[in-house]
Specification:
alpha+beta, EC 1.5.1.38, 11 helices, NADH Oxidase, globular, 4 strands, binds flavin mononucleotide
């Protein structure tokens, strides 16, 4: 395995950090490298808000559902879908813009996700760990106000970054078998249940034996609960308030 593959294959979300700053030049190197992520039509429809201020992190932690690691990490990044910059570009060119369809929302969300995964991977290659924080969408309006996000800019997820506390490194969370997610030529439904059952065994063993948060649960028991009820119903109204549409 080359170094990139090794780094990728060693990923785990890190939620416990040393009390050690990430030097600004290191962070800028990481984010600068991550910026080379591919981006739809080179629109680069994202912005990253770097938050280090303790009081602001505390407020964000609360808005993310009281996630302690948001307070404890030295750097919290908020990845936003951003068409504000494009709206400025269009103004400079005296052209109209139309953000009334689902497409720009997908474009900005995908762009934000691509750059964010690059940031995490680059950080991991520098011995820094982190975790995505989807909890940022629990209270999108309040987060948007706190970070003074303009029209056409919405938070997609946050990311805690910091040097891992080696006393608290979690075991790797196993993934589905490769064959479950990789289909040859056409979508293969035949063996999905078999792969899921195999994975249930693996995950049950992982939950039962991991060093913290031990419990007895399979993957299907865990994930089937997540989408029992509609989630984050406020998002549609919030996104509309940011002047996007759903046509
Ligand atoms: C978009 C996204 C949102 C996430 N939100 C949270 C979160 O709010 N809090 C948290 O502790 N972990 C969060 N995670 C981390 C996942 O729980 C984690 O990636 C997953 O369980 C797999 O574990 P691993 O990253 O250690 O392999 C999020 C991950 C992603 C990709």
């Amino acid at each position: 395995m080359n170094e990139v593959l090794k780094t990728m294959s060693n990923h785990r979300s890190i939620r416990h950090y040393l009390k050690k700053e990430i030097p600004n030049d290191v962070l800028e190197q990481i984010i600068g490298a991550a910026q080379w992520a591919s981006t739809s039509s080179n629109v680069q429809a994202y912005s990253i808000i770097k938050v280090k201020d303790q009081a602001r992190k505390e407020k964000l932690a609360e808005l993310c559902g009281n996630q302690q690691h948001v307070i404890n990490c030295p750097v919290f990044l908020v990845f936003c879908g951003d068409f504000y910059r494009l709206s400025l570009a269009a103004k400079m060119e005296n052209t109209e813009t139309n953000f009334d369809t689902v497409e720009p929302l997908l474009v900005a969300t995908i762009d934000a996700a691509l750059v964010a995964q690059n940031v995490l991977l680059a950080a991991e290659s520098c011995g820094i760990g982190g975790v995505f924080i989807g909890g940022i969408r629990n209270n999108s309006k309040e987060v948007s106000e706190l970070l003074q996000l303009p029209d056409y800019v919405y938070p997609v997820f946050g990311m805690c970054l910091g040097y891992p506390d080696m006393k608290n490194i979690p075991e790797q969370k196993p993934r589905l078998p490769l064959q479950a997610i990789l289909h040859e030529e056409i979508y293969q439904t035949e063996n999905q249940e078999k792969y899921i059952e195999e994975y249930n065994e693996v995950m049950k063993n992982y939950y039962e034996t991991r060093s913290t948060g031990k419990r007895s649960e399979t993957w299907t028991e865990n994930v089937s609960k997540i989408y029992q009820a509609p989630r984050r119903l406020h998002l549609r109204g919030f996104i509309e308030s940011k002047r996007f549409g759903f046509k």
